[in-house]
């Protein structure tokens, strides 16, 4: 953690854009100003470059078992890819098993990540059932592990799906304990019926993954979760919002005073349902849930980000090889492992398609890729901004360069890119995490295991500014 001075950069936060120097000592930002003293510091000239707060990805699935296989990227390859992609903190999902202690599941995830991560990380905890035994364990999960967000699936019937009573009781418990409830909002019962019917009719190609998971099923589940949140006077975070039907339900709930937040992902902003119609089973590369939607949803999602109806961007990183994993679903789309390789390109795509194309401002870019996530998930003020006293998680970004996304050059372990051949404006040059270079001049400098597990603060209304989260 040597002393560093980043000079001549343009500092971007969720509220400001200004030129200045950043002094880093002891892993923290110790001063911001002009012509700061250089004695004893490594000087990094960031002229004509932006300095962004390190990205925070609130939605990853590393080394996760699913559909008889395991995601290709683990906490080493996944976090290396995250680092190259300007992300310095991730929050992964810890899956639980019914009837087993929650601590047992958390220990499994600690073991998966031990000595592997190059960026800082934390966990969300899946809640698959609620009973007295589970409820009695939640205070310890929050106090000792610092895990202050719980995930409830409304889909994947007979696998992850929980019933409405479980969701409602989780919301009530979260309100009392100071946690944020996250939902995968799709109507799993209806989807189960539609998929069974499609297979009976011989409809087996990847496109039927989308056609059996219509946007109405996402909108209905989002609205139901929002209503239950309102009833419980609790707080809700809807993951991977893909369509206008869901955005409308979130906006309606927020207008009525419900504490409901929404996340979308870059894949829904730049890809559409037609990718799943690619021949020779290529469409399987784009199978994830919720599925890709009609192209008309893209600008609606961008607008929702711009005006504050959606607050964050996750990757929903969940990578499976096309050959050897995705092809488990040849002849039966329900057996295609759900998920895609997104973690490395989340930050770049948001800048290129958002800022460079005039859809969102630089400040909004920082807000949705970092700051809002830090606030919602108990990581502020240490993470999510460039300010005196905050962790020196900083991305040095060249807006004048460009690159082409390709599996040939990405750092994920997976054998394809969901954005193959896409040109993006802007390039990440160097990335610092707690004052240390983890990527320097586009070369990895971090050692696996340097990433720290973050115990997060409780969800606290007083931590948030109403102004920052108000729908415009």
Tell me what the structure shows.
This protein is α/β, with parallel strands linked by helices and 472 residues long. It has helices spanning 77-84, 102-113, 132-145, 164-177, 188-200, 207-211, 215-232, 244-255, 266-270, 296-307, 346-355, 362-376, 466-469; strands spanning 4-12, 17-25, 28-33, 42-45, 50-53, 55-60, 65-66, 69-70, 87-94, 120-126, 149-153, 180-184, 235-238, 259-264, 312-313, 394-404, 423-433, 436-440, 443-444. The strands form 3 sheets. Strands 1, 2, 3, 4, 5, 16, 17, 18 and 19 form a 9-stranded mixed β-sheet that branches. The chain has an 8-stranded parallel β-sheet with strand order 6-9-10-11-12-13-14-15. Helix 4 crosses helix 7 (215-232) and helix 7 runs parallel beside helix 8 (244-255). It is globular and about 70 Å long. The two termini are 41 Å apart.
